[in-house]
Amino acid sequence: MSETKNRPYHHGDLRRALIGTALDMLATDQNWTFTLREVARRTGVSHAAPYKHFRDREMLLRELARIGFVRLGESMTEAMSLGLASTRARFTAAAQACIRFACQNPGLYRLMFSSDADKTIDPQLHDAAMDTFGILLRLLRDGQQDGSFRPVAVSALAAASWAQVHGLAMLAISNQLLEEKVGSAPVPASLDVLLDGMCRSD
User: Fold this and answer.
1) What is the dihedral sign for C-alpha 34, 38, 40, 42?
2) Are 113 and 173 contacting, i.e. CB atoms less than 8 angstroms apart?
3) pLDDT of residue 3 exceeding 50
4) Which of 61, 71, 138, 167 is the most buried (most CB within 10 A)?
5) Helical packing angle, 57-80 and 11-29, nearest 10°
6) Tens digits of per-residue pLDDT, 12-54?
7) What is the DSSP string of 121-188?
């Protein structure tokens, strides 16, 4: 990324520019060890400029995580809106979209579920995470209403499915889904096993 010293920004543009730089750094480095000073330098502004929008580095990281949850939710929603005939097919599409998002944004995905993205102290981050989780909950409730999924507590279905999908995503971005361990198509095979357990047998 080219750097320009003391580049002028309007107030809102500066915030967007800082976030864009931080997202680029996260995508390139796959970690979030950068400082606000480094973000400012790469954005081409003074080292004090980020503090007009972010109290500290942790506040910026939480904003990146919030953006990640919004983008993840959009990816899942888009995948489910492709005219799929069954709830099971929509669940599979949403799950695969989640795993694909993680593989395309491994650094951001890890940050979203790290202790640096503390949802208990950031209402906007909390709401974004819950909105994304709400996509799963609505899908599961739809499946129960149309008779696809078992009539158990939706929280149990949510916990089982979220743990499975998130686990697959983390294994995928850590390059642990090796063929000699889990076969040549571990994601669809694992989702089929999960859905066989979630779906009604009658």
Assistant:
1) negative
2) no
3) no
4) 61
5) 80
6) 699 999 999 999 999 999 999 999 999 999 999 999 999 999 9
7) S-HHHHHHHHHHHHHHHHHHHHHHHTT-B-SS-HHHHHHHHHHHHHHHHHHHHTT---HHHH-S-HHH
Contact between 95 and 139 under an 8 Å Cβ cutoff? The reply is no
Structure tokens at 66: 């919030």
Domains by residue range for the chain, with CATH: 1-54 (1.10.10), 58-198 (1.10.357.10)
Euclidean distance between CA atoms 65 and 165, whole angstroms: 18
Nearest alpha carbon to residue 96 among 36, 184, 9, 164 = 164
Q: Give me the amino acid identity at 75.
A: S
SS3 199: strand
Q: Which of 132, 131, 146 is nearest to 87 (CA)?
A: 146
Alpha-carbon span 55 to 52, nearest angstrom: 8
pLDDT value at 184 more than 80: no
d(CA 115, CA 58): 10
> pTM of the prediction?
0.90
Q: Residue 149: what are its φ and ψ, rounded to 5°? A: -105, 155
